[in-house]
Design a protein that fits this description.
Elements: H1 2-10, H2 20-25, H3 29-37, E1 57-62, E2 65-70, H4 74-83, H5 98-103, H6 105-116, H7 121-131, E3 135-138, H8 141-145, H9 148-152, E4 156-161, E5 165-170, H10 194-200
Antiparallel strand pairs: 1-2, 2-3, 4-5
């Protein structure tokens, strides 16, 4: 928006650059915090909170795969406790804050994992909605490729490729008001468009094309 106002006032535009590396660096915020606390440390946190400052915050087993549960505030933890049938933990000082739970992170993860391991991912997602804590299934690639939401938005397209057969292709994530997603076409084979291009630009006599 700033560039638009600048153009309207000065008549000159301005290039806006967004580098993926610059944007991705911000994802290290929690890890960087640990680094400045102790520059010699290089902990491997796996799926836990990168700053080891929140719990429960991990990927847990289920009957049919894995789920990610992320408790960002105390209400989220209260929801997990209620979903586990352990409302008694809410008033227990050992579990009262993130700092307290992180001090016994192994115990927390073991307890949550024992509960999730008895339920399917769908059951766990239902529990997360009822008790209002953030959770998501860890999906396999085959599940992501068939995601109904991505297909409904036109981000993923079922495409009949002339060489590969039925495949699922990604569309552009850009959406413009009033315009449908761009149609997809297969990459042309070597020389496929030669005749059309040569005719269009009159590079060769039509009788030779």
């Amino acid at each position: 928006m700033h560039c638009y106002f600048e153009r309207s006032r000065t008549g000159a535009g301005r290039i806006c650059e967004v580098a993926m590396l610059d944007a991705a660096y911000i994802a290290l915020t929690s890890t960087i915090g640990l680094h400045f606390d102790d520059p010699t440390a290089n902990p491997r946190t796996g799926s836990r909170h990168a700053g080891m400052a929140m719990a429960p915050y991990n990927v847990y087993p289920s009957v049919d795969g894995y789920v990610a549960i992320i408790c960002v505030n105390e209400e989220h933890w209260h929801g997990v406790a209620r979903a586990m049938g352990r409302a008694d933990l809410i008033g227990d000082s050992r579990f009262a804050t993130h700092a307290a739970r992180c001090a016994i992170m192994e115990e927390i993860d073991t307890m949550v994992g024992a509960w999730t391991g008895k339920l399917t991912r769908d059951r766990l997602m239902d529990a997360s909605k009822v008790h209002r804590f953030p959770a998501a299934p860890v999906r396999k690639t085959a599940e992501v490729v068939q995601d109904p939401h991505l297909h409904a938005r036109g981000m993923l397209i079922d495409f009949d490729h002339p060489e590969l057969g039925p495949v699922v292709l990604p569309n552009s994530p850009m959406r413009f008001d009033g315009l449908p997603p761009m149609p997809l076409r297969a990459s042309p084979c070597l020389g496929q468009d030669n005749t059309r291009i040569l005719k269009t630009h009159a590079v060769m006599p039509l009788e030779q094309a």
